[in-house]
Fold each of these.
Amino acid sequence: MSIKEYLTVREIIGPLLLVDDVEGAKYGELVEIEFPDGSVGTGNVLEVSGRKVLVQCFEDTRGLSIGKTRIRFRGRGMELPVSRDILGRVFGGLGDPIDGGPEIIATKRLDVNGNPINPTARDYPSDFIQTGVSAIDGLNPLVRGQKLPIFSGSGLPHSRLAAQIARQSAVLRKEEEFSVVFAAMGITFEEANYFIEEFRKTAAIERSVLFVNLADDPAMERIATPRMALTAAEYLAFDLGMHVLVIMTDMTYYCEALREVSAARKEVPGRRGYPGYLYTDLAMLYERAGRIKGAKGSITQIPILTMPEDDKTHPIPDLTGYITEGQIMLSRELHRRDIYPPIDVLPSLSRLKEKGIGEGRTREDHSNLSNQLFSAYARGKEAKELAVILGESALTEEDKMFASFSDEFEREFIRQGEFENRTMDFTLSVGWDLLRLLPRAELKRVKPEQIQKYMKQVD
Amino acid sequence: MEDSTGQIVKVAGPLVVGAGLPEPRMYDLVRVGSQRLMGEIIELRGDLASIQVYEETGGLGPGDPLFGTGGALSVELGPGLIESVYDGVQRPLDVIRSATGDFIARGVEMPGLDREKGWEFVPVAKVGQEVAAGDVLGTVQETKSVEHRVMVPPGVSGKVAEVMQGSFRVTDVVAVISGAEGDTEVTMMQRWPVRMPRPHNGKRAPRDQLVTGQRVIDTLFPIAKGGTACVPGPFGSGKTVIQHAIAKWANADIILFVGCGERGNEMTEVLLEFPELIDPYSGEPLTKRTVLIANTSNMPVAAREASVYTGITIAEYFRDMGYHVALQADSTSRWAEALREISGRLQEMPGEEGFPAYLGTRLASFYERAGLARCAGTEERTGSVTIVGSVSPPGGDLSEPVTQATLRVVKVFWGLEDRLAFRRHFPAINWLISYSLYLGEIEKRWNEEVAGDFHRLRSEAMSVLQREAELEEIVRLIGVEALSPAERLVMETAKSIREDFLQQNAFDEIDAFSSLRKQYLLLKLVMTFGSEAGKALEAGAGIKEVIGHPMRESIASAKYTPEEDLEELEALIAEVEEAMKLVVEGVVHDHELTESAAGRAREKVKKVFDTY
């Protein structure tokens, strides 16, 4: 196949190139961009209109010139070469190896945009994943095939938490193949390095595939990075039958890159300048999590995003929350009080919880106990707010009990060590111990038989 | 294969501009590219036609062929709809899966109705009978729950010249009608363009209640058959759980669930769960009365725009048979966003927040297709379409355009609140902001069908809740001691209404559904406690004894009483009355105690005010 080369770049605006007099370009086609200095970058076709083609360049456009830039249309969309050998490798944001290792000899080349899973082919996620973190396992449990983002803020230990989840949920099932796909978008070298080192230390690196786009890498590359990672994940899960955990960090930078393109195209913006199709675009990524009937593997996603100004109504967390099946919310206040992991359990939620827990999966009292802990903690927090306004003496006896319950709950249940891997039984028994602080009559959400059975009796 | 009739000149995401189509008309269906992707014309400028494409457009480019079909986007209506799972343009997803695998490939052409399956057609009309459009020619037992009525298609009338009996495919002729313009062969299948409402003989004001089995909905903010409701709420507040609950338990004949731009796993839940669940009215699995339309958020955006129309057209078709249909659209915000996206690609001048200026009109005309209608045809029958649309306002802010445009047209508003969801109060419908404009009509029916005092109890409960909100302000300012015993009781009664009546566990086998009778008895139980305890207080009983009475635990667990043991609730109501009388007789006065506490609080208020 001969590939035509064009020297007809007419405009360069931000990350966009307008090429004229092109024949036969297709929407979404992969584009090679040869810089005047001979280096080669990639892009894709955003719009074709007659002979005019709008190309989005994934590299920094510094050094491009109108007259000397060569454009080659590759006649196919963006693809990722895959084989079992991708495990243990580190790739750049566009899928080229950056760990000094050899190129991947592909058994398959996959379109990075993927195809939507047919809703009738999906299997409902119901296998509980024990993460060893009480605030997650006990109250907002994660199940295979779920997408559960961590909503964080700058300076909060979301990376440590994500690494802990990856580490601890990985060791649980030795009999099944488990792997981690990690996509870094716009994070710093230090953060990315932290993950890589973490994976090295626990030998998880052999079961991992890493795609790294750092803060100083071209921002446009970030648009492709999660697609690369999810394509690799789909291959591992549905071709090789592995249980894949995908960690994507930081979605905020991804969305900002999208906004940059949208602004350069002069599109009508939606909220806060983000494009109107942000929801659809994010859904195309998040919805690639799941299980398929009859397939052995699964894709579980933990996207991480930092909320600008800790504001969860900001379009990025807001739209994410509408797509994902719950969220783990980190709290600056808990972090300040040195509680790790600083998970604010009240606004956190796991939508698939009811299906993943209970008898035969975790324990029959799990659901009731977690509801009881939730409502007691919520009431305790309310009482404490009241105490701030009126002074502690204004509280009723019961409110005081709830207030001290919520303190203990944060200290004993939520707080745990970064390397502490709690079993389900331990998590639940901590919960039952805490309920002893409350009057029996207030425990309306657990059954009397359960109190009898699980609450340690003290004389 | 027909010849290519046009060419693509521009591709921008889901929008393709083509030229050279012979006589293109607005909303004509066009096949795009050599894969023949489905698309619809949404703008015409001279020779150029803008086409929204219902499939991913990657790989298309200028010069690719376009094929005009000359028709509008239509759905196929006939036996085989029930139990189907369609995408937004009525392609059966289960059939697609067996043809192309677990991931949806492009360019699949699949008829909405199975062409091969045979249906047992039983004639109703007689040869020689005069029939008009909408009259029933015969019936097909589509599932155990649904008798499909094969009707004379719109625009056809005359004498029945021939009518068959036996097993037929949907495309076989089952009757011949000779009218003024000659004979018309009628099959069991009709086609109807989705953007056009199906004809009927006039609408009526909705009056019968659509019982959903959800206490906060049925008792506080009921919806009528043929009514419209919206459920706005931020994420995590339980919109989808409410939509699912209605789909499961509503006393409608047919359920149409449109998953519009929502999560794939939620559709899976419906797909896996509904065959297991038993319809409380017919005793058959819920799927036997359900049609699903699944256009999840990662499926093409233009098909999402079409999905609500596909849904409502199928709903209207069943209405025409004389059925009561409930359509759930989850979520209309995603549909509005699809409009916005397409509008943006057309470079239209945006209205609020980038939404097109015609958002309000589009929403209104969609909701207006709901209603209780006299069905087309010579025989007198009525059918209804009820629409419940969920709205996903960004950041939970109800002032955004989609919520506001929806509130202008719907009659029932169930406002969800994340604050309630955080406290695990489900369904998280805020009782202070929600409303129902059907209440008056429905209350009249309660008098006849449930109990004479139901509506009195309801308004008392509402005023207790209202009063609680006011008292909470005081408590927040100066503490609970500042309240008089009577006010404390109001707070406690309100708490009981919230916890023992309004809270309902959608995942509990018994609690998931409450009949109107049970709702009435539960409410009566809670309110009886309130009024009797009030009397006890007046007679001198102490507040602590009243609100700490052991009877209250029985009240709390009353909602777990199975439907067949409702007389237990009546007995419980009598017991509560009795118990409160006993409290009065055995009172030990602790007036001094409460008095002094209240005194202390009053002093504190004074101090607070003095400092300012």
Amino acid sequence: MNVKKWFHHHEHDNVQEGAITPIHYTNPYLIGLLLGFVLLATFVIMGRGMGASGVLSTVVAVTVEKVSPASVEGNNFYMGYLGDGESNPLKNWLMFEVIGIVIGGFISGAIAGRNKLVIEKGPRITNKKRLLFAFIGGSLMGFGAKMARGCTSGQGLTGGALLSVGGWAFMIAVFAGAYAFAYFVRRQWT
Amino acid sequence: MTSPFFKFGYFNDEVSLIVAFILGLAFGFLFERGGFGSGRMLAAQFYFTDMRVFKVMFTAITTAMIGLFYLSWIGFLDLSLVYFGETFLLPQVIGGLILGIGFVVGGYCPGTSSVAIATGKIDAIVYAFGGLFGIFVFGEAFPYITEFFYSTPMGQITLPELFGIDHGIILLAVIFLAIAGFTAADWGEKFMASKKEGK
């Protein structure tokens, strides 16, 4: 299976092969400031913060229930994402928020000319290996986020701004884990 | 006190979904502008080659934190009505370490992967499927790790409450920490740039 060949037309893409070119990326502190204001607006309007990994959990819980209803019974983790049985569990606040995130990201990318099919990686790794790493990393993220009761959005941004003890402990652990392991996957990125 | 608006019943559940969508649009737009749609940009912070993501994230946290404190202080926002999860220290630290390793191996976290998928990153799609698989594994393992999942409970607790220090002092400490972090980030970037040139 020659995965690289499928995406052959992106071989000379500078995002993939060369230096990271932050064309049209705005000043990080300005973006951070605006992001902080949107997060603040979320607290003021909704009385809650933002999140992301909860959507994936709902998708998993709904799928497992469809395939094997018996295995969901008595499993408090799945049940927590299936609601009261009255309404569709997929119709929830986080789901609508994440749909907004996807469309908002697409709009920004379209304006900046950054929307294109590409495999993001450093120059020293094959596409096939990169995709394998992406799957393994995603699996670790999924497991870790559920263990921690949230991800970089729910625990990090939201819990961090609210000075939650768990949020800060989580965030410090995320950076500790990432920096400690970065050396072992350096060939993927640098 | 007039906010949080939703908690005071200014609009219903159906409207809250529209609000969620609009706020999501803003988050997604700014995430993409911040460079969160690129796995290389996200990973660069772990090698000190480009600290952009780190700067965006901590500026956002600090800004929202100061805003919350101010709006609560002038009596506009009832902070006790703003929801955040309870702390279970040990599982959250272990979960954070695992997620951190997943971050540098996979290149994304859940929120950033949705922006990356929106802008066409194929590896982000694979990453999201990995995420579903990881959550499935957690769900199946849940009956066996329930005890650990609920260990070291501390309740809904904030840093000022934990240390018994005034909210404002913690605020100043976090601001100081952020500035120190940004300075260190700039220094790291310069160091890596000079190292690269020296090669």
Amino acid sequence: MKSKLWKLLAIFAVLGLIAVGCGDDDSSSESSSESSSSESSSSESSSSESSSSEEAPAEEECELARGVTDDKILFGSSQPMTGNLAALGEQAVLAMEVTRDRINDGGGINGRMIEFIVQDDAYNPEKTVSNAQYFIEQENVFAIWASIGSATLKAALPLHDESNTPSLFPWAQDLSFYDVNNHPLFFSVNPPAYAQTKGFGNYLVENFGTDGIKVGLMTINSVDGEQTVQGYKDSTGGDLLVDEQTWERDSTTYGPQILSFIDSGVTDVYVGTGDTQFAQFLLEADQLGLDARFWGSTGTISANTIELAGDLSEGAYGVNVISSATGDKPGLNAYREAMFAAGAEEAQISTASLLAYTGGLVLEEMLTRAGECLTVESFVAAGETIKDFDTGGIMRPLNFSAENHLGNNDVIILQVQNGAWEELVVGQE
Amino acid sequence: MSEPSENSTTALDRAKIPLPKFLKKNHYFGFIGILLVYLLAGTYSEYSQTIMNTIIFAIIGASLIVVFGMAGQLTLGHTIFVAAGVFLSANITTVWTRGLETELPIAFGVAFLLGLIVGFPSLRVNELYLALATFAVAFVGVQVLFEWKQFSGGGSGKPVGKLELFGYEFSRGPTLVRIALVLMLITFWVVGNYQDGRTGRAWNALRTSETAARAAGLPVAWLKILCFGIGGGLAAIGGVLYAHTLRYAIPENYGVALSIIVVLALIIGGKHRLMGAVLGAVFVKWLPELSRDVQEYEGLIYGGTLIILTLIAPDGLVGMFEWLAERMRLKDRLERLGITVNNSLYNLKPFNQILKLKVPTSSTIEKASPLGSRYLAPLSSSDPKGSLIVRDAAVAFGGVKAVDGVSFEIPAGGVTGLIGSNGAGKTTLFNAITGHVKGATGQFILDGEEISQKPIHNRALSGLGRTFQNLNLHDDLNVLEHALLGLDRNMKYGRIAESFRMPWVLREEKNAHYVAAELLDHMDLLDYWNEKVEDLPYGLQKRVDVVRALATNPSILLLDEPAAGLPTAEALEMMEKVQEYANHISAGVLIIEHNVELVAGVSDRIIVLDAGKTIADGTPEEVTRNEQVIAAYLGT
Amino acid sequence: MVDYIQIAWQGLVSGFAYALIGLALVMVYKTARILNFAAGTMAGISGFLAHWWAAEQDMPFGVAILFAMIMTGAGTYVVERLTVRPLVKLGDFLPIVIMTLGVEEFLANVSLLWWGGTARRYRVPGDIDRINWLIGDFRLNAWHLVVAITTFVTLSIVGYIINQTELGLGMKAFAEDQDAAKLMGIKESTVSIWTWVLSALVGGVTGIVFAPVLFLQQDYMNIIFIKGFVAAILGGFLSLSGGVAGGLLLGELEAFTIKWAPREFAAALPVVIVFIVLLIRPHGLFTREKGHERV
């Protein structure tokens, strides 16, 4: 008897499994109906809420976007909160909190308060994708905001696109993100790594000529690294490249690379790293006697570089997409004031937090322009109308359009002077 | 199917040893579990990503059971197979624009071959060193991906194309989960079949004692390499699914960190069971999922849980559940026997031993001689075999000559004793004959066939059967499995057939079970067929060692101190059984023994070694009268 | 020529870190047959503690280090008793490895919650980590000299403890033969715990002395730990001096391969070389292969 029961169950099991082969049309239609039903359910809830405020004048029908209610807009953010990039995640989250508090203290946008959820991905794409699904399908967020990492975003972006979820102002610099046709919901104020080194090469030739200039590049052996090199090669200074070195996330010393730079007699070294690594690079370059101009990438421009490297950072250049976080401009002063008020340490005044903060300014403008009826379409359309947006000098006025979701294509050259990053020149790629 | 009555004369039926069946209870549970997830996948589509990751990790875990759980090869390079699956999938879907029907076989095939290569270091090194060697492989693998830009896209990675099967495009989400479940089912089916078949048995044997596995005639080197091949191939299936979940393949993901997590997950779950692979994957993937609301403390919770879990379940979750279940059953049995125990489940171990040894199951039934049974009778032979010629055997360790030019000839079918004081070189001579010692010189000719140059397992296949002074049994394997190991050479089914549990696989397995049961019966071990060998008393363990050697149907049986540590009566009884069986198959016997009376009693002839040299050779009477022997050995 | 000396010195400084961590790992493995995956994180926490006492609690530099070392020792004592000890009696290698991975994860997160992810500078008196001397063309960093001296002092102290003290004799006895040592009346649990503490202190010294070199970041000792692990295996994992020699060798190997190897292979080459060495000498460079397997 017992074994017959088992066999019966087994037959059911096998039948069910065979069904997957034939279940193709079924399940795909099922999932599509599911997504539509989830949309309709969210619209139901919102419409029920709107119907509760019946005295409101009957406007034209508006289906609010997922994650948007009459009094709240919800965002998700996937950040490296653990692992060796945790510092960046902490800085970005702090800037997001500052943005949220500023908006909410001012009464929100169109009566809606901003809220966001942060999840750790430890810079692991698998976690970023799970986080994205969690944000989109369980928390029903409106958009993904200010996430960090090219490798991680590459994995999560298809999910964002499919689920009609905007990806807003991440710190991710891969060229492929900026293609509006492929990623119509991607907005950024951070030019690709490619543009940054190209800008660097152009600036170098413009200001130091080509005579006797030998350039060494040091890039991370990862997603952004190759485009960093390519960007430089495509610049007017591309021919001056004499030594190309890479570093790994698990390097403990840059000594050998520095010795190689000494060997090849470089006069200028571009280091694509984070602030701590740049400080260590400067330290070791000094130990080993590498006498050159040092150019740090976006990630190296923070107060912490100067704190860690001390005098050794004096005179170092920074190739940035944004003004120095420590500079003196109305927008920057407001940023620092808000950051310190929120409990930021000196070391957290950095490009990472400033980029997230600036993205927040644009986000506020986009939401305001999108108006009462906030849908993904109205939001994107609103974003594309932004022209000459003033950030208080953090960036040059920003311009977006239907063809261009990258508001800022600046390459800004900074230099450490008297223990602070000073802006030298603002150029464009 | 199994009918009572008629067959009940076989030892197998008397001991109620279950025959291998096409579907086992575990299979049904597995089916139902997977079916449930399958049906619920649509309902909980918002978790599909985490469910997918869990399934992928379960598949990778199952593949690791092959390499690590069964064959015991501690690898930190398992991710390169996952990476192979991921990047092959990315290339096949984008460059060839083909679907799963192409991805899966190619990923499996390529990773299989890759596994065969990666497996090579395992022939040289073990444990820690193998972990490092495979760590190096993983490390280099990632670097290769970084630099092989056409294949991997370099540091920037490569997108993964559509999810297709025979041209039908599938949506991701729940559908992908369903596809993954079917692949998981297949993977588990294959791994489960290996666990039940001769290959899994052989892997388990080589894990627990490589020396003995070789002596039983198992091709250990090939088995080791093969486990990497099969494990790698299955891991690549997980990789293909991983590619479709992530949709973007980036080299830096597939480094050593992932390898460590995969191994950790399996150990947490339980490394010998498929359920362990599932539980480990659930642990690794769902703990973070469940601690999303307290995200800041996720790492703390994860680490803390890991610590507590290791404390309460050091053998993994499956191990803990099995342990609990066993204690429950035992308590039940004790209570039925009227023995009250205090409530602590910890104090039952001694009772466990007593119970196991006290409750006979079959000996009350009248039985025929196993040798006359239809399974052992055909092995009977009147043609004596096992003539062994040893010429100038010599083994030196450093400057010490442990065996120094020993020569003798043993005629077929006889019983020969090899005696000598401690350190006389007896065991070393055995090892030289069977190939277990490096650097042995001399010539060994068995039944006219020169075996001096053959590897250990081939010498065993040529007809050398041996036991060990210190037993070398396979912990974790039961008594029956030890006999089946010896019978491995009789099973002809292939490893592909095994992985799909083909009818002839079952047929041969069934037959082997019958033979094994009769053999156990002959050695009076039938009652203990299902006991793990490490739970048995010493005397029975010695018999298991002998059974394993007898099952190989040897031409000559080399017994290394079979009586050591046993009361003389018990030793004599065992020797009688061995001799009876040796006579039955007309095999020769060569015994090392300290107990001169025992040797003299059973041997036709005795060879005496001293300081690596033969000092006497003759009938027991001659030898015991030899003055040199008395001086060197008997006198003291 | 100076070039080579410079590279060799640079490799040696990295090698000191690998050697010390390798030594710490071998010590525990040799006496207790335990692989401590938390060694790197524990060493890093020592560095953070020294910084915390000095910079945030205004302790003098030396006192801060002393306090940090005491906390490291005491913390290790507690960790060993609570987590590893209960598992030792099972006699299985793997659960303990998993346990140390759990401890690693736990401590790393405690450290992250306490000190945050932002890197800190570990200040040393007179900022001597920023002083470079020029000897001919050879450049010598003052702190690197301190690192070298500290390494030698640490090695000497460890050498003294192992060869001259009761603890050391106990460790040796256990390394030789666990059963015999027990018969001799040496208490396994006592030897084990002090070995752990000693190993953690060696790690702690490494964590502190390399803090100015690597900056205090979360995980900053983890990479050193992995390299130390490789070094220990290269040295045979059962020989203390082998572990140290393996570390120094690995440091040199890294320095010279990055210098000479093509860029594509530079990162992987040291590991490949170790891999090949292992294939040729499966039991490491500095331990002799055990005699034939007794069967």
